[in-house]
């Protein structure tokens, strides 16, 4: 778990030698990447394990709402695209779990934490996907919000996390476009299709704004994560950017954002927007979202159903190892 004697000593005694800490901070300040074998403060390592594993869990749980629509996609083309997108999310989780393992975390422990409800995952995936338009809204808004958050993470201070983000962002960008294209088709279709698109936007808008996390003055982790350059922008900065980019996209396809207080502010060069319902957000964080229970049940069932695959893969690897040794 610990790659150098100094790391081990520092972790065991909780004493972080001042010169190591100073060197670490200087490297972060110089925008150098911190790599797995480098010394790092315990709290930095723990913060990364928390954020990266929760990010991985979000990708895994995020496969569920869209997975529900693979068999019901309205055409073969839509089905093939959705299948590829959901597979991409599984891949993102794998890169992120692997990157988290470089910090000394065991994958089984991370997965246990998800299944026992100890670890969080994004609140957004505790909302149901009621119509096909929700698949458009998820791609456009949820993946759109994810990109807004993840593009800066390509320059996060921990090397393996930053590099995982490069590939993830390329794929998320395709996901966002496929979602917007679904919304464009629906908004330009029959009156009923346009109504579906508007209804999906109405239901997904506010939960998408919540994805960026609590407001800055109520975000316990932000200040330290910004200092360590784990986070490169604050929750509120990213939320504002998302609103500014997304509102014109809604207007371009004739949909309206469900916020009576939304107004362009000429002086700021940004939109003013209404208050997010933070009570709803905290309830979802506590696992009380509309379909939170179903999501965790589906996740645990998938894990149990997949036991034979993991057993077979382990047996196969052992056989290969034994053959090579012989
Ligand atoms: N949901 O101090 P804060 C995807 C928690 S997947 C749940 O601001 P931080 C996709 C937070 O964890 C996208 N919990 O925290 C997949 C903290 O509690 P803990 C997922 C939330 O970490 C499939 C507490 O609230 N993206 O796009 O500085 C299909 C206080 O918050 C949420 C990532 O994970 C939330 N929304 O900032 C389609 C990005 N927000 O952990 C799409 C990586 C906050 O102390 N993560 N909490 O117990 C991050 O950038 C940061 O962790 C956050 C939160 C901005 C999310």
From TrEMBL:
One function term, GO molecular function aspect: phenylacetyl-CoA 1,2-epoxidase activity
GO terms (BP aspect): phenylacetate catabolic process
Stored Pfam families: PaaA_PaaC (PF05138)
Protein's UniProt name: 1,2-phenylacetyl-CoA epoxidase subunit A
Entry's Gene Ontology cellular component terms: cytosol
UniProt-listed InterPro entries: Aromatic_CoA_ox/epox, Ferritin-like, Ferritin-like_SF, PaaA, PaaA_PaaC
Domain of life from the UniProt record: Bacteria
